[in-house]
Write a structure and sequence with these properties.
globular; 4 helices; alpha+beta; 7 strands; disordered N terminus; single chain; Aminopeptidase
């Protein structure tokens, strides 16, 4: 049985960069955005990916070799309260790039550490692959009302 990988230990050999969304990224993301969100739907329309005044940030996961956007995350700090970060969306260009997504989560955890001590991600109960993905990274499920969240405490 393979050991459980945490988000803090990304897959070896991958190179990725997590950076704020740039205007030029939208066109490249548009090529795969609808397909990437078809299973769970997207809580954020492509046109609304730009950062908002309510603290929502869109971070682009770029392949370190090709410099192409291969994923994105929509994150809000201080949600649901101070000390928390919420991942509203994690989308990757192709399903087989789950290792890139895991690396992106590790980069995100490093980025919000210090501003947040807990991180959570909403998961549709109908999408077992998403649930499994977060479990593999060491997140634990929490049910709140009708919603399923995957939660992790961040080490200081």
């Amino acid at each position: 049985m393979a050991p459980k990988r945490s988000a803090a230990s990304p897959p070896a050999g991958l190179i990725a960069v997590l950076s704020p969304l740039l205007e030029g990224d939208i066109e490249a993301i548009a090529r795969w955005y609808d397909q990437a969100t078809v299973l769970a739907g997207s809580p954020v329309r492509l046109e609304d990916l730009r950062d908002s005044t309510d603290g929502r940030q869109t971070l682009v996961l770029t392949d370190g070799e090709s410099r192409e956007p291969v994923g994105l995350m929509v994150v809000t700090l201080v949600d649901p309260e101070p000390g928390w970060a919420t991942v509203a969306l994690l989308a990757i260009a192709r399903q087989e790039e789950r290792d890139i997504a895991a690396l992106g989560v590790a980069l995100l955890e490093g980025r919000v550490r210090g501003e947040a001590s807990h991180i959570r991600a909403g998961v549709s109960p109908d999408v077992g692959l998403a649930l499994y993905f977060w479990l593999r990274l060491g997140y634990r499920p929490i049910v709140s009302g009708e919603e399923l969240w995957m939660m992790r405490e961040l080490e200081a």
